[in-house]
Amino acid sequence: QTISIAKAGITTVLNSRTSVLAAANPPSGRYDDLKTAQDNIDLQTTILSRFDLIFIVKDVRMFSQDKNIASHIIKLHTSADSTMSESRPAKQDNWMKRYIHYCRSTCHPRLSESAASVLQENYVKIRQDMRKQANETGEAAAIPITVRQLEAVVRLSESLARMRLSQLANENHVSEALRLFNNSTMDAARSGINQHINLSPEMAQAETQIKRRMGIGS
């Protein structure tokens, strides 16, 4: 099958087996914590549901983090000449690439019965939590949790097992896959202060006026 994409001037048709790594900025150019994830992401749920993991990456102003990033960027530029002069590693020395190829070609893991049971219970619980959140806020989640997300966790579990050359994805692999899913897609779905506050009409009007006068992040 194929997936049709028409977004940001890009119109193309991709094979459904294509792996896509995408990055995008919010409509305002900066993530606004006062808005819901739906307002910040501003993508159709039909597109969002096709991604296995969705991470929200914020530029948090923190001295230690800014110093590490600046140091890393400067080192990249100062060592650029020496890196270019070095010869590329021989094909036989690229063991990581060969290991990944070996894992893909020789290992085809499947879920164990106990792992499948754990995954089923957690999927039902996640669906119940998202339904409860939607009832409390009166809004549907920005990122719907559907069978596609269940398949995403299955793929992650099998990938983790494949990394260890295991033909069986056990409960540990499922637990790690669920941790990754909760720390990415689920956090993105729950983000936004407004998701946890029921605003009265007067508060909503005051909020609108404040946003017009204050910059994002103020």
From TrEMBL:
EC number(s) stated in the UniProt entry for this protein: 3.6.4.12
Domain MCM C-terminal AAA(+) ATPase: 1-73
Chief localisation class: nucleus
UniProt GO MF annotations: 3'-5' DNA helicase activity; ATP binding; DNA replication origin binding; hydrolase activity; single-stranded DNA binding; single-stranded DNA helicase activity
GO BP of this protein: DNA replication initiation; double-strand break repair via break-induced replication
InterPro entries: MCM, MCM5, MCM_dom, MCM_lid, P-loop_NTPase
Enzyme class of the recorded protein, top EC level: hydrolase
GO cellular component: MCM complex; nucleus
Source taxon at top rank: Eukaryota
Pfam families membership: MCM, MCM_lid
Location(s), subcellular: Nucleus
Keyword Secreted among record annotations: no
Its job: Acts as component of the MCM2-7 complex (MCM complex) which is the replicative helicase essential for 'once per cell cycle' DNA replication initiation and elongation in eukaryotic cells. The active ATPase sites in the MCM2-7 ring are formed through the interaction surfaces of two neighboring subunits such that a critical structure of a conserved arginine finger motif is provided in trans relative to the ATP-binding site of the Walker A box of the adjacent subunit. The six ATPase active sites, however, are likely to contribute differentially to the complex helicase activity.
Homology family: Belongs to the MCM family.
Subunit structure: Component of the MCM2-7 complex.
Name of this chain's protein: DNA replication licensing factor MCM5
Protein source organism: Galium aparine (Catchweed bedstraw)
